[in-house]
Design a protein that fits this description.
The protein is of the alpha/beta class. It contains ten helices and ten strands. It has a five-stranded parallel sheet. A three-stranded parallel sheet has the order 9-8-10, with helices on one face. Helix 5 links the parallel strand 8 and strand 9. Helix 5 crosses helix 10. The termini are far apart.
Length: 264
């Protein structure tokens, strides 16, 4: 039975990928991380000492601390955070338990460098429709909740990428782009190592909507229709992204929990 200040792997796995999921802070040592350079989705690495130097960026957010085995490092940091008024828990049995139960892990080597505020910065073409909304959704829900997205004219993507040190996506001749019959969303799911059933199911829906193969899944035509509707409703790309995120949240929850449910 976990203590009131612990959360189990099963409990945490139900929260990750959803809006309002807790902040995850990984305080494994450098040697522990190098032995397995993967992260629980959305986790940020911080040292278990010098807590004051990094904790304020997470003010007023619930936090789950994790170390290799759920022992002293995460317990010490969580206790200190609770003293400072944070809502802080530890992951019971730590990273080891998450990995042993075959929960999803993100390949840290695929996460772009972060800016001075600790955010990844991405750039793509303006006026998003399907994939250029789906990819930001995936990044914010599974990789970096604080990710910054820059939408610019197509001819400016390369220049803005260099100037802003931003990672380009869904444009020609870059790493994060279509490959064969796969969309950029498919590529991100695969490259980050997020090959779990709900995201693979959602990727098929996105692929059908993005490629115009509306019979690919029963949901693809509806996703295309709503994405095009959002693009007509909003002139501002960031406002469109914010408005459209919940529909991807809903499709993810359906893909995870309700694909077999029928309404009579």
């Amino acid at each position: 039975m976990p203590s009131p200040t612990e959360i189990t792997v099963a409990q945490l796995s139900r929260l990750i990928g959803l809006p309002g999921a807790p902040v995850l802070v990984d305080v494994r040592t450098d040697d522990e991380f190098k032995s397995d350079p993967q992260l629980i989705p959305t986790a940020r690495r911080h040292p278990s000492t010098g807590v004051d130097a990094w904790c304020r960026r997470y003010a007023e957010q619930p936090i789950v601390m994790l170390c290799q085995s759920g022992g002293t490092p995460s317990q010490a940091v969580a206790a200190r955070l609770r003293h400072e008024g944070f809502e802080a828990q530890t992951l019971a049995d730590g990273f080891d338990a998450w990995r042993e139960l075959r929960q999803p892990l993100v390949r840290a080597s695929k996460i772009p460098p972060r800016d001075s505020e600790g955010q990844t910065v991405w750039v793509t073409r303006a006026r998003p429709k399907v994939v250029r909304v789906a990819c930001p959704w995936l990044i914010r829900r599974s990789v970096d909740p604080s990710a910054v997205f820059l939408f610019v004219p197509p001819a400016e993507v390369a220049g803005v990428s260099e100037h802003a040190k931003a990672t380009p996506f869904d444009v020609d001749a870059v790493f994060w782009s279509d490959r064969g019959g796969k969309t950029t969303f498919d590529v991100m799911v695969e490259e980050f190592g997020l090959n779990v059933a709900p995201l693979l199911h959602l990727a098929r829906i996105v692929r059908g909507a993005d490629t115009g193969r509306l019979d690919f899944t029963p949901q693809s035509a509806g996703l295309l229709a709503t994405c095009l509707g959002y693009s007509r409703m909003y002139r501002d790309d960031l406002a469109q992204l914010a408005a459209a995120m919940p529909q991807f949240d809903a499709l993810y929850r359906w893909s995870r929990d309700a694909v077999d449910e029928r309404h009579s």
